[in-house]
Amino acid sequence: MQTFGQQLINGLSLGSIYALLALGYTMVYGIIKLINFAHGDIYMLGAFWGYFVINQLHFNFIWAMLSAMIFCALLGVVIEYFAYRPLRHSPRITALITAIGVSFLLENGMTYLFTANTRSFPQVIKTVTYHLGGLRISNIQLLILGTACLLMLLLELIIKRTKMGRAMRAVSVDPEAAQLVGININHTISFTFALGSAMAGAAGVLIGLYYNSIDPLMGMTPGIKAFVAAVIGGIGSVPGASVGGFLIGLLETGVQAIGLSAYKDAVVYFVLIVILLVLPAGIFGHKTKEKV
Amino acid sequence: MLSVKDLVVNYGAIQAIKKVSFEIHTGEIVTLIGANGAGKSTILHTISGIMRPVSGQVTYLDRQIQKVAAPRIVQAGISQVPEGRHIFPGLSVQENLQMGAFLRKDRRSIAQAYEDVYNYFPVLKQRRHQDAATLSGGEQQMLAMGRALMAAPKLMLLDEPSMGLAPIFINEIFDIIRAINAAGTTVLLIEQNANKALSIADRGYVLASGEIKLSGTGQELLANTAVQQAYLGG
């Protein structure tokens, strides 16, 4: 029981990182039907940004995370503008391959500039471990969980309650009709990349604090797992991405807890295959039936 | 109010519109009739700023607008009700209407616009919290028209509003088009249902293979034997 509780806490912490990343995949897919394979690398850049501003500029955690979010938001907008926008009317596979190219560029560019060495992330917040009835919870875990939930709530409010949020939903269901009511499609897509990338930037700083190490290829595996999370949740669905992220986090720590650490990645992909066989549109995805 | 002069538009490699010219005066209902594929929707998309012409001018209130982006066109007072309605599924009826007022800021006039729309289409008020995708075809057409009205257009472009609707809905839709026009909105109506369209139109143009073949008042075109043979099943 105790182990179970402990793994639940660990799983939720890791899961909230996946959830933050999965949101970016799902929002971008929802609006331009592109799987942005460079998304995991934006998360890596967010972590590096955090590393530098904490070490060089002595930012505290809050400012490091906020500035990483802004930096990544701008980066997402720039990548969309130069790499994906010119391909808006090209076949989808062209944009997909470009996304893989952008991912390689960021990974190898960072390796070239900063070497492939693993760096230890500055511990800007001192880790304190609380003992609660046999469970060990660190303040970092609480911080990750709290921040992730806060950001997801904020995102939900932006999507549901703001004008840009409504524009995002309109463009994702019907770009032509969105234009006809006066929505600027380019601005809306830029805004979507900014939001998704900001989430990835926050996740990068949080994971730096949690795992204490960063490197230029750190975005690859979490990027793919967050993509799996988005697919399991139902790609294009915002609540689906959050739920999918937590599921993957729990699954991964659960598998490790029963002593199958070596198979944790395999299990994640196995579950992906099973879910796609049983629920091809994911948990929250639905085939929209429209009357004509 | 709007004049289209020597408009040429390509659709992919095909020249869909070949030197089309027509005019709409303030307060009129003007209809463009023609068979499927005659290029009617292409003309509307060009006016709305979604497609760009190869050559020719679109002049609206003394301003050339053929290079103006779609959002600016809506802001200038031209709203389109697209073919196939294109309502936003997953958004409620009210949210769909709210999207129609996307570029407007004055809360009071937006509140008035809701009221006007709900007066034209009481059924939308009943269903305002429902997902728009659950509406019937006729109700979706009403919603698409209501959404366009939310922008307070001076000129409303309607693309095949009667398509796929039951006759009872068709009559209702055409009555409302007339009411909207009577309330001060100029209307450009595109229809395959030429009989209905010509009977409410002040003037009409007949479009075939991307060219204007005939023009005249609604009554003249209804009485024209060539039009009767080609479009009125007569």
CATH class of chain B, named Alpha Beta
Q: Strand order within the widest sheet of chain A?
A: 1-4
Number of domains of chain B: 1
CATH topology of chain A, anyone?
ABC transporter involved in vitamin B12 uptake, BtuC
Q: Using the CA coordinates, give the radius of gyration of chain B.
A: 17 Å
Second CATH tier, the architecture of chain A: Orthogonal Bundle
SSE string of chain B, helices as H and strands as E: EEEHEEHEHHHHEHEHEEHH
Distance between the termini of chain B: 34 Å
Strand content of chain B: 25-35%
Main β sheet profile of chain A = 2 strands, antiparallel
Give average pLDDT of chain B, whole number. Answer: 91
Helix count of chain B, per DSSP? 10
The main sheet of chain B orders its strands as: 6-7-8-3-9-10
GO biological process, one term (chain A): L-alanine transport
Organism (chain A): Levilactobacillus parabrevis ATCC 53295
Main location (chain A): membrane
Subcellular location (chain A): Cell membrane
